[in-house]
Design a protein that fits this description.
The chain has about 100 residues and is an alpha+beta fold. The protein is built from three helices and three strands. The protein has helices spanning about 5, 30-35, 80-95, and strands spanning about 15-25, 55-65, 65-75.
Amino acid sequence: MDCHAHEGDVFLHQIVTGDESWVYHFESESKRQSMQWKDPSSLASKKFKTQASTRKVMLTIYWDVNGPILVHFYEKGQTVTSARYTDMLVNELKPK
């Protein structure tokens, strides 16, 4: 049976999908954090472009027709097991 033909677009609102990928982790400074007091006669300091660190984390994301509904990060070295997925889905994704 073709669910979309039977139920129309309502069927699409019931679909949740997910993916995972390794992403670089970095913490950028806020404007206030990067500010420093300077004497008016001192030279301006150079600002360097923020680069991603060599540290990676695993990003797991789930979304539905309206967009992301769960974004979860696993630290490098953590073992991703079926128990961790189950815990994440039951405690973080499942509607209250």
